[in-house]
Amino acid sequence: MRIIRFILLTLFALVVIIPMMIVVLTTFKSTSEVFSNILGLPSSLSFKNYVSIFTEQPMSRYFLNSVIVTFFSVTLTLLFASLIAYSVTRMFGWIGVIIFSLFTLGMMVPAQVNMIPLYQLVYNLGLTNSLLGLILVNIAVTMPVAIFIITGFMKSIPKSLFEAATIDGASEFKMYYKIAIPLSLPSIAATAIFLCVMHWNDLLYPLLFITNNDYKTLPLALLEFQGEYATNYPLLFTGVLIASAPMILAYLFLQRYFIAGITAGSVKG
Where's the ABC transmembrane type-1 domain (predicted)? Predict the structure, then answer.
């Protein structure tokens, strides 16, 4: 049994590592080298693609746009979702259940179904080709899943803590940021990582709302390396590696918070 497990884990590791190695090696190759020997080593360790991607394209601007959109989308989503989650858990009876169900209904609607009415709404508000419009759309789209995750954890907080705080004269807002938020930090951290990866890698909504180069994000900018008849794979893979690096580093440093958030509340007592 142990040998079978070792073989399966090895195969899974190879499935993950080999494509990553191909991407990394391709960033040091020329286009002719890619088509002649995609699995081979580069003829020389050249950083020409890394220099070209920043000199030929305004990648620093695209990178900054992605940082702004991701930061404000995640921060505001967590703020509103935690407030709503706390309010729902503090409601007694069927009212809280109905409100929670209405919010989570948003998880059942595929993003593609909302594309036309969502674009019409954003266009009528004059928020196309703006980072603000993209941030507001991201908040609205990911709010249901954030509420679902955080509410599930806040429901596990003992009600006796809130009762004791009420007796001591604490207001609802004070109980929110003094009790609910500190105890829910593992769940909030896991949700933050999940939302951060989702917004950073999002292509659908920037492709739908952004046409001006000044407001393009990294995933949308990477499409410029793919032409109708030819694709510059070395530059494309270089851009993919640069765009993926922040999320990989963030997960490596924050994985313990992600795992703690996933397992938090699963064991009582």
Answer: 63-254
Give which of 131, 1, 25, 119 is closest to 71, Cα–Cα.
131
The full DSSP string for 144-200 is HHHHHHHHHHHTTS-HHHHHHHHHTT--HHHHIIIIIHHHTHHHHHHHHHHHHHHHH
| 226: helix, strand or coil | strand
User: Domain-by-domain residue ranges, the chain?
Assistant: 51-268
Cβ contacts of residue 22 below 8 Å, gap of 6+? Answer: 38, 39
Q: Give the phi and the psi of residue 151 in degrees, each rounded to 5.
A: -65, -40
The model's pLDDT over 71-121, given as tens digits with 9 standing for 90+, comes to 999 999 999 999 999 999 888 778 888 888 888 888 888 878 888 899 999
Beta bridge partners of 226: 231
3-state DSSP helix/strand/coil percent for the chain, to nearest 5?
80, 0, 20
Structure tokens at 233: 């794979």
pLDDT grade for 47, boundaries at 50, 70 and 90 = confident
Q: Which residues contact residue 42 at a Cβ distance below 8 angstroms, ignoring those fewer than 6 apart?
A: 25, 28, 29, 33
Q: Report the alpha-carbon distance of residue 151 to residue 86 in Å, rounded.
A: 7
pLDDT band at 268 (very low <50, low <70, confident <90, very high): very low
Q: How many Å apart are CA 269 and CA 262, to the nearest integer?
A: 17
Domain 51-268 classified CATH 1.20.1250.20?
no
Task: Name the nearest CA neighbour of 190 among 135, 255, 118.
Answer: 255
Q: How far apart are CA 192 and CA 148, in angstroms?
A: 13
Stated pTM of the model? 0.83
